[in-house]
Amino acid sequence: MSNEGYVTADGRKIGGTVMEMKNITLRFGGVKAITDISFDIKQGEIRAIIGPNGAGKSSMLNVISGFYVPQEGEVWYKGSRRPQMRPYEVAQQGIARTFQNIALFEGMTVLDNVMTGRLNHMKTGLFSQAIWKGKAEQEEVANREVVEKVIDFLEIQAIRKTPVSRLPYGLKKRVELARALAAEPSILLLDEPMAGMNVEEKEDMSRFILDVNDEFGTTICLIEHDMGVVMDLSDRVVVMDYGKKIGDGSPDEVRNNQAVIDAYLGVSHD
Amino acid sequence: MSDQLVYAMEVFLNGLMAGVLYALVALGFVLIYKASGIFNYAQGVMALFAALTLVGIMDGQVPFAHLINAMFGTELHHFGWHLPAVVAILGTAAVMVLLSWMVQKFVFRHLVGQEPIILFMATIGLAYFLEGFGDIMWGSDIKKLDVGLPQGINAWIDNVTFNIFDYGFFIDNLDIVATVIAAILVFSLVLFSQYTKQGRAMRAVADDHQAALSVGINLNFIWVMVWSLAGFVALVAGIMWGTKSGVQFSLSLIALKALPVLMLGGFTSIPGAIVGGLIIGVGEKLFEFAIGPMVGGATENWFAYVLALIFLVFRPQGLFGEKIIERV
């Protein structure tokens, strides 16, 4: 695959490769969750991974974010091979993620949750942080600015002081997105950002994903099994089925791919 | 003012001071519970171990002297130095950090994701191990601990109260020092957990491991840090109790007094541990003073537990604990 960028259908310029997965194979005991999959993610694009239930999409995302370690294959990030890393180290490298089943700090307020996204951007000493003086103060103010911008952007100002445990599902998903965004990630991984949402919430979320990409230029890799949504949102799509890659390309290319159609609609055996 | 009321006031003040010491032990429990959901049964033994180590380092005792002498037929007992208290306290703090790291590395790292009851059982094991280890390392005799804290009746309070009430209150200087130190400790812990990056990370880890990992928090580091903090709190508690009643193995039983404190204050609240400690301290002293003579005394042995039981019935999350509402 070339390292060059391309121009999308709607005229956005996409940069070079940020992340490349090379021949990834992941096994759980005797079960192969992912078999020999390669694909790349380019700077500034919205890259989707789709597939029927159990295709291995979430496993793939967990490999990228370091929660799973593949038995075979290499992960290349920003031009060099990534050694085996713990999930927190991957996060410190600038890869933020959300979870399918929402992993928020339920006991904290929305604001505190989003602030935790800034933890890796805090550098001053313990003591000056505790007494709130000097550099620590400037740093906290700068971090708060980023956080407020994100909160504004995702339209959650009204609930910023609300404990997360009291929020409805759709808003929790949005808070999780806010926390990931606050880290100003190089790559934002979204695990089924629209799962369990109603039509209106889905439309909101789609708009936010597009806006985030547009406004901050964030590279986004998302998983979704709602085909309609994915085709509208993404620039390029990887299609997985039974742990194998069966298609890769623009939404239009993928839509007309016979293997993809078979996987989604089934093949007649007559 | 009637004599009874004046006595009651003295009892009240002494109760507050006793409560501070209970709160100090309870604080160690809260720290670990907040950050890892583990109820650390070994907290009391940690206080004992810290006090033993402190005395040992200060007096230049040779660790494992009995063992070494028995094995090699030597007669080692003392290094022959006598270190200043500050150096010994720093040394002990370092030992407590090392201990925390080892506890994390050899015990809890292997139990990540296990049921709370299993983690609890592990801390019981840890408690017995530490008690035995402390015995082998420093010997089981009762030791005197003197880090230079003032002790004995506070003359100023005695004087002032004598002028007002015609009756001098007996307040121990050590209790006053303990109160001041506890206040400083609590204040810095609250600052730490509310305003620093590590404090924020600690609260995050307590809440959700997966989410904490995804924002780049090193779980192991946070756990070692929290156990070290709890070890430090145990050291402070060990110094106070050890100075008051000598360093002896019954010290580990103060952990049992911290239980009702936690039930009152809530397992997750730092201020709760303080308020709970004060209520228990004052409550048991006043109860003994007012009701004790009618029932033949010794109410201090059970009052705290009965109070805790009542709380368990009516407010199981304690005064300041987080109420957990499950959505159905």
Describe this structure in words.
The complex is a heterodimer of chains A (270) and B (328). Chain A has 270 residues and is an alpha/beta fold. Helix content of chain A is 36%, strand content 24%. Chain A is built from 10 helices and 12 strands. Chain A has helices at residues 57-64, 87-92, 110-116, 126-131, 135-153, 169-182, 199-216, 227-233, 251-255, 258-265, and strands at 6-7, 13-14, 17-28, 31-42, 46-50, 72-77, 80-81, 95-97, 187-191, 219-223, 236-241, 244-249. In chain A, the strands form 3 sheets. Chain A has a 6-stranded mixed sheet, sandwiched between helices. A 4-stranded antiparallel sheet of chain A has the order 4-3-6-7, covered by helices on one side. The two termini of chain A are 38 Å apart. Chain B is mainly α and 328 residues long. Chain B has a single domain, classed as ABC transporter involved in vitamin B12 uptake, BtuC, CATH 1.10.3470. The radius of gyration of chain B is 21 Å and the shape is globular. Chain B starts with a helix and ends in a 14-residue tail after the last helix. The model of chain B has no long low-confidence stretch (mean pLDDT 87). At the A-B interface, α2, α3 and α4 of A face α7, α8 and α9 of B.
